[in-house]
Amino acid sequence: MTPTLIGRWQTRLLLLGTLGVLITIPFSLFNGDAIYFQVLLCIAVLGCIWDIVYNLLQQLRWDHDWSALWQLAAGIWEAFFFYVPFKFLLGNVLKLPWLSSEIPFDKFLLHYLCICLAVFIASQTIMRVMFPRWRFHGGEWL
Fold first, then answer.
1. Cβ 15 vs Cβ 42: under 8 Å
2. β strands within 40-109, DSSP E
3. CA distance 25 to 39
4. Who contacts 83 (Cβ-Cβ below 8 Å, separation ≥6)?
5. Mind listing the pLDDT tens digit for each residue in 41-73?
6. CB 101 within 8 A of CB 87
7. What is the DSSP string of 109-121?
8. pTM of the entire structure?
């Protein structure tokens, strides 16, 4: 499957809105803090911006597609570019009142890795079985 930009966005939002929320609930309950939902929101928003870049880079590849290894590597790359703006720019510079940047790197990394791996595994397995249209229509499930 060669995902389209709309397909990337739909898939990202569907998986983060289901699996991401299910994974974030225990983190939030265990620590008694809603900051993990703020992280999830930032992952969704910044991820949609990254999807524009990924879509442009994908057009440069000879087969116009990403291998699973590239998808996994993109998740590692995104972790840095999610944490730095979240920690330093969004909370401290922009002074958004609803956004707290008080999250230690180790807690962020554990939460992010759980979400990243769950989304990757779901996109490689269950999405292909449950949504055959998704697979053959560029990742678009609507």
1. no
2. none
3. 12
4. 105, 108, 109, 112
5. 888 988 899 889 888 888 887 766 777 888 888
6. yes
7. HHHHHHHHHHHHH
8. 0.82
